[in-house]
Amino acid sequence: DQQVKQNSPSLSVQEGRISILNCDYTNSMFDYFLWYKKYPAEGPTFLISISSIKDKNEDGRFTVFLNKSAKHLSLHIVPSQPGDSAVYFCAASAVRGGADGLTFGKGTHLIIQP
Amino acid sequence: KAGVTQTPRYLIKTRGQQVTLSCSPISGHRSVSWYQQTPGQGLQFLFEYFSETQRNKGNFPGRFSGRQFSNSRSEMNVSTLELGDSALYLCASSLSGFDTQYFGPGTRLTVL
């Protein structure tokens, strides 16, 4: 039973445009959400997080939106750059930081085209 | 500040053998978590250690075990290896477990 779902295995976006990556979850106990970016042969790199008490968090070109009633979050990257091409993972936890173990989606491969 | 380091980076073993993987967290971080990444199952939580104690455990058989030392370094052991244990094993550290986890590059284990 997948508790965190990223339904788009891949996404292609033109350089300079907005990239929107989506994530859905089923466990209502999840209280803290994160996005990680992963290049091949490297570990995931933390991008941005959001607590369930907020509906938006922004950090530079990255913005995460949380819709608790829909159990949905999205990551917006504006503007998209070639270096953003990577696999993006959505993760969730019942406690801040994920000491109880982060639950990950299967990832979305973002391809930024010149 | 140095990041999370994992050794070895690559490992080839045969079925039935056992393996030990090592993780050195970021200096000052006391929480270490381990994850398994496979193409079919994605990233799955194995266990988390804080101050030499296992605080949380994922849904993996008892063949998977770990420990943490007083300097926060952690080791993960897999006994009686199976073909399905072939995976990328990732270690992540955080200050307390209740803040951002930072991942190492992983150890790629191949079981033949």
Provide the fold topology.
The complex is a heterodimer of chains A (114) and B (112).
Chain A lengths: L3 E2 L4 E5 L4 E7 L6 E7 L6 E7 L4 E4 L2 E6 L4 E6 L8 E8 L9 E2 L3 E6 L1
Parallel strand pairs in A: 2-11
Antiparallel strand pairs in A: 1-3, 3-8, 4-5, 4-9, 6-7, 7-8, 9-10, 9-11
Chain B lengths: L4 E3 L2 E4 L5 E6 L6 E8 L3 E9 L2 E5 L6 E5 L5 E5 L8 E8 L7 E2 L3 E5 L1
Parallel strand pairs in B: 2-11
Antiparallel strand pairs in B: 1-3, 3-8, 4-5, 4-9, 5-6, 7-8, 9-10, 9-11
Q: Could you walk me through the main structural features you see in this protein, from its secondary elements to its overall organization?
A:
The complex is a heterodimer of chains A (114) and B (112). Chain A is mainly beta and 114 residues long. Chain A is 0% helix and 53% strand. Chain A has strands at 4-5, 10-14, 19-25, 32-38, 45-51, 56-59, 62-67, 72-77, 86-93, 103-104, 108-113. In chain A, strands 2, 4, 5, 9, 10 and 11 form a six-stranded mixed β-sheet that branches. Chain A has a five-stranded antiparallel β-sheet with strand order 1-3-8-7-6, with no helix packed on it. Chain B is mostly beta strands and 112 residues long. Chain B is globular and about 35 Å long. The model of chain B has no long low-confidence stretch (mean pLDDT 95). Classes of the chains: A mainly beta (114), B mainly beta (112).
